[in-house]
Design a protein that fits this description.
The structure is a single chain. By secondary structure, the chain is mostly helical. Helix content is 55%, strand content 5%. It has 9 helices and 3 strands, in the order αααββαααααβα. The structure holds zinc ion. Zinc ion binds next to α3. Zinc ion binds at residues 56, 60, 119, 136, 139.
Length: 262
């Protein structure tokens, strides 16, 4: 209740600032971003950094659009936020992705990891492995956490359906590394291997998607640099337009089956 009151208060302030009479969806969404992500700062001036951020965020957005079993893209933006956030891609959690028990599937988890690696994948494909940046560090943390949970909590690897850690274990933060004894050292090595395999598999998938759609990636980056924010619908339309054009030119018809515009 207090969170909702706080949210609507923020939305009301934005509404007044925009000289509107009533709070709309836009103000509520913007207020959610202010509270959960940070205050908006001035857009970056055109620079190498701005281009890199754009490629990184389009990487996330495009991978999420191309994969099955992902949540729907809500928007992608390169307007910086307080707290050192250079940009982000946001998703609407899709109820269809949750099974009747309210649980996320293995396929959803793998897609989510691949999407999280989409930013780094785009940096690497466009600028080369030597040029990748720290911009992906929170993505990498998320990837490690999800992949580790798949192996140690959800029994989703070939180590079998056994819980190897308790849900609140902070092992992956490195704090209790030596104090836990749920499993042997040999098992710890196996766990690390599986976690790494999941991450590498998903990273290769993300890089392949970026590579195979490089022209579209460039188009989307240009649009994002132009507009600073692209919402999910518009993102799909740019993709659809691109697909139509390339189909007419019969450059690469295989692009059409990838389901952009979902
Ligand atoms: Zn990222």
């Amino acid at each position: 209740g207090a969170d909702l009151a706080n949210l609507l208060n923020e939305a009301a302030i934005l509404t007044a600032r925009r000289r509107k009479d009533t709070i709309g969806n836009l103000e509520v969404n913007d207020a959610i971003d202010r509270i959960t992500i940070g205050l908006t700062l001035n857009p970056l001036l055109d620079s190498k950094k701005k281009w890199l951020v754009a490629y990184h965020e389009i990487g996330h957005a495009l991978v999420s659009t191309m994969l099955k079993n992902t949540d729907t893209l809500e928007k992608v933006t390169i307007i910086p936020r307080s707290g050192g956030i250079a940009g982000f891609a946001n998703y609407v959690l899709d109820d269809e992705m949750i099974d009747s028990e309210g649980l996320r599937s293995r396929a959803w988890l793998l897609s989510r990891i691949t999407v999280a690696l989409g930013g780094r994948a785009a940096e690497a494909e466009v600028y080369g492995d030597a040029e990748v940046t720290l911009g992906a560090s929170s993505d990498i943390t998320e990837v490690s956490k999800l992949a580790r949970e798949m192996v140690t909590l959800y029994g989703m690897s070939d180590l079998g359906p056994v819980a190897l850690e308790s849900p609140n274990s902070e092992v992956f933060l490195g704090q209790n590394w030596n104090s836990r004894s749920d499993y042997s050292e040999a098992m710890a090595i196996k766990i690390d291997q599986r976690v790494r395999e999941i991450a590498i598999h998903c990273y290769e998938d993300a890089r392949r998607i970026i590579r195979e759609n490089r022209d579209l990636v460039d188009k989307l980056v240009e649009a994002l640099l132009d507009e600073d924010t692209i919402d999910g619908d518009e993102f799909g339309k740019i993709g659809d337009r691109y697909v139509e054009v390339t189909k007419e030119d019969s450059v690469d018809i295989s692009q059409t089956s990838l389901g952009i515009g979902k």
